[in-house]
Amino acid sequence: MLFETEGSSAASSYADHDEIENFIDRCSICFYEQLDLCLEGCRDQFCHGCFQRYIVDVVKSSWGLSVTPISCPVCTELIPKHEWSQYVPQSITDTYDKFNKPYRSYIRTCHHCETDLIPCVYPNNKPNNSKLFCDLMESMLQTCEEGENHKNHTEHISVKRWLSVNKRQDWSDTKLPTHYKHIMNNVNTFERNHAKFPRFAYQISIEYLNLCENPEIWKQLQFAHIRLFRDMKCFNCKASICLHCGYDSHFNTGCEENMHNISKTLKDKDTRTTIKWKIQHSRQCPNCSIMINRDEGCNKVDCSYCGFCFCWACRSSWSDGCGFYRCSNSTNDLCYTESSEEKTELGVPNIKNIQARLITPMDLD
C-alpha cells in the first residue's frame, strides 16, 4: 500500500494552483495565448487574434434584413459596437453598418446592367406623412367619373372610412400591417373599377410605409408592398424587372411558369441548366412571394428575406399538421426528391426500418 507523504501532497497542490493560475491569464477561446483584452461588461478575456476572428465571422454571416447583435462568445452578453469595433479593421465595421440597419431595404439586382433596385426606402428624417397619405386617397376618389350619386357606393365608403381613421391617426405601429392589408384591398378594388389613373394604389402603398416608426413592423410592410407590386423599372437601363424572381417582368404569368418559358428558348446549355435547377429547387414564399431556393433539408423553412416560417411541401404557415419529413396537408412530399429512403419525424425512431433489420431468413420461410 502506498501512502502520500505531506511533501508530495503539498507539491501536488502547488502544481494544481500553478495550472489554474496559468489558465487565468489565457484567452477564453483558445486557452493558449496570453490575454490581450477584457470586455467591459462581462469581464471575459481574449487574445486579440481570437477575438478579431470571432467578430469578423459574426459580421460576415449577418447578411439578413434584421440587425444582428454581437454578443460575447462565452456568456452571450451583448457587446456594444464602440467596444468590439476597436479590435477589427474599419472595413469590417463598415460592412456591419451596411448590412445591419434597422430599416434595411430589400434589394434586387437588375440582370441586364447590375444596377441595384430598391423598391422601399425608409426616410431618415421623415415628416408626418399622414396628410400626404390622405391627400393621395382623396385625389384617387376625385378621379371617379361615375357621378355624384355613385359616391355612396360601397367601395367609396370603404376608402372614406380609412381616410377618417388616418386623419385622426387612430392607429399604432402594431396595427399597421393589418390596416395595410385591408386598406390596399379596398384601394386596389376601387382603382380597378373606378379610378381614371391607375397608379394611385402604388403611391398610397409607399406613403403608408412612411407612417411606421418601428423597424420590425416597417420590414413587414416592406414585404407586403413587394408582394402586391412585384414589377419595378430599372432607372439605368429602363428594363422592367420582377422583384419576386429577378427576371424580366411577366405580367400575365407566374414566376415558375415564366422560368419554364425562358428555359425552352435558351440555347446556352449552362444557363438552361441553371434555370432548370431553380425551377426544381425554388418556391415562392407564401408571405412575400419572393422566390427562395432549397436543395436539401426538412419541410420547415424560414424565408431568408421576410423571416416567415412555412412548410415547403404545402406552403402553409408552419403548424402541427406539417411534419418535418411527412406533411399531412400535402400529397406531394418535396423532401423526397433526391432520396427514396423513408424518413420519420425528427427524434422519432423509424419502426419499419428497425423491424426490417430484425427479420431473419428463418422468419421468411
Automatic annotation (TrEMBL):
Documented EC number(s): 2.3.2.31
GO molecular function: ubiquitin protein ligase activity; zinc ion binding
Residue ranges annotated for the RING-type domain, each copy included: 23-331, 27-76
Keyword Ribonucleoprotein: no
Annotated coiled-coil segments of the chain: none
Known catalytic reactions: [E2 ubiquitin-conjugating enzyme]-S-ubiquitinyl-L-cysteine + [acceptor protein]-L-lysine = [E2 ubiquitin-conjugating enzyme]-L-cysteine + [acceptor protein]-N(6)-ubiquitinyl-L-lysine
This protein's UniProt keywords: Metal-binding, Repeat, Transferase, Ubl conjugation pathway, Zinc, Zinc-finger
One GO process term, biological-process aspect: protein ubiquitination
SUPFAM superfamilies recorded: RING/U-box
Protein name: RBR-type E3 ubiquitin transferase
